[in-house]
Task: structure prediction
Amino acid sequence: MPEIKIACVVDDDPLYNFGIKKLFEYSSFSEDNLFYKNGQEAIDGLSKIIENGETLPNVILLDINMPIMNGWQFLEEFKNRGMDIHGIRIFVVSSSINQDEIDRANAYDYVSGYIFKPLTMDKIKDLKEKLANM
Result:
């Protein structure tokens, strides 16, 4: 993936989302960004994009602990709706260092990695490089 057209962030923390937006801008991470506050909002938004034949995000940064639909539920619904066939790279982004959660995230074949919060400029640059080499 030579460039990231659209990055998607699924996280309920407005302060975190503001920070990520700034990091994306400063690092020229992507041309455009989508932000969803929970997994249900993301599934609904992605479904609408697919229905309308619009461009899907290249990458999703997914939080685990959110209201309404958490990250685990999102991953299951993502698969159940066949969204995993679109080649979207999903990275679980969490403050949890629990090895069971890391293993659980990595067990999904459509999850490309696990990133520890907080995201920093170095982590964003590393992620962009990793995506360019996938």
In short: The chain is about 45% helix and 20% strand. Strands lie at 6-10, 32-36, 59-62, 89-94, 111-116. The domain at 6-129 is CATH 3.40.50.2300 (Rossmann fold).
